Every structure is written in C-alpha cells, then in structure tokens.
Amino acid sequence: MTKGGECVKNFALLQGKLMQPQSDIQERKNQHLDLALKAQMASALKDQRFSYEPLLKGHPTEAQILKERAFLGKSILAPLWISSMTGGSDKAQTINKRLAQIAGEFGLGMGLGSCRVLLEAPERFNDFDLRGLLGDARPFYANLGLAQIEQMLALGETDRINNMVEKLRCDGLIIHVNPLQEWFQVGGDRIERPPLETIEGLLEHFKFPVVIKEVGQGMGPASLRELLKLPIRGIEFAAFGGTNFTQLEALRSERPMPNRLNELSCVGHTAEEMVIEVNQLLSTFENDNTSPKGGHEFIISGGIKSFLEGFYLMKKLNAPCIYGQAKAFLVAADRGEEELRQFVRQQLESLALAEQYLVVN
Ligand SMILES: Cc1cc2nc3c(=O)[nH]c(=O)nc-3n(C[C@H](O)[C@H](O)[C@H](O)COP(=O)(O)O)c2cc1C
Q1: C-alpha to C-alpha distance for 285 and 276, rounded to whole angstroms
Q2: Are 209 and 72 contacting, i.e. CB atoms less than 8 angstroms apart?
Q3: Ligand 1, residues 80, 82, 84, 95: which to mutate, most atoms within 8 A of Cβ?
Q4: Ligand 1 pocket check: which of 94, 110, 243 to mutate, most ligand atoms within 8 Å of Cβ?
Q5: Phi and psi (nearest 5°) for 135?
Q6: Which atom of ligand 1 has the smallest separation from the CA of 239?
Q7: Does residue 40 fall inside a structural domain?
Q8: What's the alpha-carbon Rg for the chain, to the nearest Å?
Q9: Does 27 fall in a domain?
Q10: Quick check: helix, strand or coil at residue 284?
C-alpha cells in the first residue's frame, strides 16, 4: 500500500475508535446516572501505601504485561510464582496439569507439591511430570520436607533425590521446613537434628540449586540470618497470614483443640515482617565484611491475597524477588482451566497497571 493509502487506513481506524454507536453512548450515560451514588468512596478506604501518579505514563502494553526477566537462573515473563501444592492423587494431577498449562502460557515459575509420594509410589510420576507443559525456559522446582531429607541423609540415600530431580527435569529442589506441622500431623515425622545441619548436609551431596521455605508461618530473623549464610539459591517466605499447615493438621486431628484453633498455629511472621527482617539482615551483612554477600533470590509468599500486596512487598524488599501464591491458585484452578487463565491474566494486567501508575510511599 502507498504511504497515502496507509494514512487513510490509520485515519479510518482511529475514526472507528472515536465514533461509538449512539445506543452505546446512551446506555453508558444512563448507567453513570444510576451508579454514581453507589460509587462513593469513604476517605478512610484510601490505600496509604502508594502515591498515585496518573500523568507520567500511558497504559501498559502487552510487552509490559508479559516482560521477560531472570529468576532462579531461568527466565519468567511475570513476577508471579505458583507455590508448592499438590500431587499424589488423580484430582491433584488434574490441578497440577492446569497450573502447569497456565504457567506455560504466561511464563510463570512453579514449585511442585511434596514429591515424597513419588519416592514411595513411582507410579504417580504423571502427577508431577509437568516440564513439558511449563516449557524449558521457566524455573520449575521439586519439593521435599525437611524430615525426609534428614532420613535420607541418615540412610546415605541422597542420590535418590538427585535422580528424582533429574527425572522430573526440575531445576532444583524446594525444601519445606515445617517442625510444627510435623508435630501435629497424625503420624507426622520427628525432626531429630537442627534443620540447618540437615540442609548443610544435603548441600554437600546435592547437584542442584536449593530453595528453603516454611508452610504458612514464615520464619524469624535468627533462622533467616543463618539461611542467608548458606549457599542456597533462594528463600520462599511461606509466611503467616494465609494457609497454615499447623492449623490444617489441627483440623485433621482426632483430638480437636478448643475452638479447633491450635495456639501454635498462631505464631509466626507475616510476609511484611519478613520483608523488613530480610532488609535489615542484608544491610547488616553489607556493613560487615565477614558476612557473605548473598546472591539469594526470594519468593514472597504466604497470605498474599492480591497482586497489590505482592506488588507492594516486591517494591519494599531490597533483593531480587517475585511473589507467590498457593491458595489463590488452588481456588481458581479448582474452577477450571479458563477460570485459572482469567485469574492470572487479570492479576498480570493489574500488576502492569500498578507498575505504570503507583509509587510506593
Ligand atoms: C493444598 C495445598 C497443599 C500444599 N502442599 C505443600 C507441599 O506439599 N509442600 C510445600 O512446601 N508447601 C505446601 N503448601 C504450602 C504452600 O506452598 C504455601 O507455602 C502456603 O499455602 C502459604 O501460601 P498461601 O497463603 O498463598 O496459600 C500447600 C498449600 C496448599 C494450599
């Protein structure tokens, strides 16, 4: 087409955008009149965490919504992690496949649920065999509990973990450290050594990167300090304020607690508290020449209810990080693949909007 022809076409497109049907305009104007009274905000609802800057940028483009970035030695297209959940039953397999499919479509990283079942029942391999759906470029981590690692170290069986990670084509292993959950779980394992010793022991024999997480209660500064000294790849908070596996085991227990609330479910550290703790530790390390210089990456998770909370905490943490969710993904995945797709799409669009127009106070 000639240059002039192109101009005419662009003008026609623009005119099409500007000229809306009269019936649409009337409908919209009537809705404004009907809904204006319901759209009143109390000033107390204002989110104090952000300054809103509407004049500085345009709407996010598709390239800004899905933007390639490095994480855990691989690449992701959005700073959102599917936290470790499930595997080991037919329903779990369906959920896992949906999650991996959507992670593949949107370029997200994903942690598998505990792969212990795989060590005991290799016929469940399909539940966890998600690399093909996720794609090679994305970070994809296997998952085991600290207690299993402790036992396998004692038996000299760490090669089985290396083999499992290899067979799953995972990039590394997430270890969940969950002493309170294990204690309250009927038939749960007993942890005999300080978990730090077990992690150090595994690192001597393990070929892949390791990430350490809790399961819904987070961890305090003394534990974080020690973790930051180890040559692990990252830390997932799995903080207090969302799904809590000590409480989940209390609910499963045949000896229910008063009000079915286990007091030890109520201790822990929220994601925001952990952000502050990590920042303090990193700045102490920076000023102390004898401390390691890190290189750790973080998944801010545990009770992250929305993209805005994730966005806020990522901006606050002074280290490479993304945010993760478990329960929110589970709810959406349970409703079906299309619901899950919409859930992720909406979250990523909203995140990109936040990036364009919000500045953290
Ligand atoms: C159904 C379900 C199963 C989970 N199973 C595991 C698991 O096998 N291993 C693990 O490390 N964490 C597991 N978690 C914990 C999550 O990874 C996450 O740390 C925790 O749910 C807090 O995040 P949330 O508040 O967004 O749910 C599970 C969570 C859910 C909801």
Answers
A1: 14
A2: yes
A3: 84
A4: 243
A5: 95, 150
A6: 22
A7: no
A8: 24
A9: no
A10: helix
In this predicted model, what pLDDT tens digit does every residue of 30-53 receive, in sequence order? 999 999 999 999 999 999 999 999
| Confidence at 1, pLDDT banded by 50, 70, 90 | very low
CB atoms inside a 10 Å sphere around CB 356: 16
pTM of the entire structure? 0.93
| Cα 21 to ligand 1 centre (Å) | 49
Q: How far is the CA of 238 from the centre of ligand 1 (A)?
A: 8
CA-proximal residue: ligand 1, atom 17 (nearest): 84
User: What is the rounded distance in angstroms from the CA atom of residue 286 to the CA atom of residue 279?
Assistant: 11
Residue nearest to atom 1 of ligand 1 (CA): 85
| Averaged confidence pLDDT in the chain | 93
Residue 174 CA to residue 157 CA, distance in Å, equals: 18
Domain that holds residue 276: 69-356
Q: Could you report the per-residue pLDDT of 312-338, keeping only the tens digit for each?
A: 999 999 999 999 999 999 999 999 999
Per the structure block, which two tokens stand in for 279? 């920042």
CATH of the domain at 180: 3.20.20.70
